[in-house]
Automatic annotation (TrEMBL):
Protein name, UniProt field: Uncharacterized protein
Biased composition annotated in UniProt, kind: Basic and acidic residues: 228-247
Record organism: Streptomyces echinoruber
Region described as Disordered: 227-252
Length: 306
């Protein structure tokens, strides 16, 4: 089953074909910006029973270079069979369209990205017949964008960057910058971005951060997904509230148990001691005080060594 992350990593190039020239610029490769584009069929099936499908396939026209066929593959993990499939795609596309093919692989983890970027040679060791060398975009080479000005300059690149950095320690800051910019972005532009980021984060922990940010910062957007995200955020908040309420109740009862032991033993409980016990919200500390309350000669004795 294809994941939402997989879909978002390649579908963004269908929605924003010009993104490839920006990605190639970031990666240090000089491709002219496209002047036009066409989304082509992704079915590369042969007449015989062999079916192969590339994730996204675009024909890019430029002013300075010949037309280019861009195949975009979203790769979630290392797969030793993929290089042969990618080589097949390239040969098939060249044969069918008589245009030079280019393969861009998009990854969300560095290990997979570095694996995908390795040149793979096909043929005997003495004389390789062909070399596969995909262009790879991933967390190892996509910029970390936490400056609103940079995000505002190119929302498509910022979206891809957020998706590829889904497991980055700074993902919270990255996503917060996105919502900051989207707050004053027209809904027609913002809503597709909201959905792409949500799909790209999939079931990773960063998805929860995005849901909460969308619910708080982008509450005025009305797309189906943003509505769903807000409702999920509200439900998450309700669950956390219930959980916090349960924890609060448990610590309150634990504090009262400590006082009850001291009272049953007939010990004098100064107001400062009572206030400190009732003000404690750490279950481990309360359990320790409860054990000491059974043997301490005075109420203050439960704080020994603290």
């Amino acid at each position: 089953m294809v994941s939402s992350s997989h879909e978002a990593m390649h579908r963004i190039f269908q929605d924003y074909p010009g993104l490839f020239s920006r990605v190639s610029e970031v990666l240090g490769i000089d491709f002219s910006p496209p002047t036009s584009f066409a989304v082509l069929p992704t079915d590369l099936t042969e007449a015989r029973p062999l079916e192969r499908r590339v994730d996204t396939l675009l024909r890019l026209e430029t002013e300075n270079d010949d037309p280019l066929l861009l195949a975009v593959e979203a790769q979630g993990k290392k797969d030793p069979d993929k290089p042969a499939s990618w080589a097949y795609y390239a040969s098939y596309l060249l044969t069918k369209y008589r245009l030079q093919p280019m393969l861009l692989v998009v990854c969300q983890d560095r290990a997979t990205a570095e694996w995908a970027a390795r040149p793979v040679r096909f043929g005997p060791r003495q004389w390789p017949l062909l070399t596969l060398r995909p262009l790879v975009a991933g967390p190892h080479n996509m910029p970390v964008l936490t400056d609103p000005a940079e995000v505002r300059e190119d929302l498509a690149l910022a979206t891809l960057s957020a998706i590829t950095h889904a497991t980055d320690p700074d993902i919270g800051a990255i996503l917060k910058t996105m919502t900051t910019v989207l707050q004053d972005t027209p809904a027609a532009l913002a809503n597709p971005i909201i959905e792409l980021v949500a799909q790209g984060l999939g079931k990773l922990p960063a998805a929860e951060i995005w849901r909460k940010l969308v619910a708080v910062d982008l509450s005025f957007y009305k797309s189906p997904l943003s509505q769903e995200l807000r409702e999920q955020g509200r439900e998450q908040g309700r669950q956390e509230g219930r959980q916090e309420g349960r924890v609060e109740g448990q610590t309150q009862r634990a504090a009262e148990d400590v006082l009850e032991v001291l009272e049953v033993r007939g010990l004098d409980i100064p107001e400062a001691v009572r206030a400190r016990i009732l003000g404690c919200d750490d279950p481990d500390t309360l359990r320790r005080w409860h054990r000491r309350a059974v043997i301490t000669p005075s109420a203050e004795g439960i704080f020994t060594d603290e």
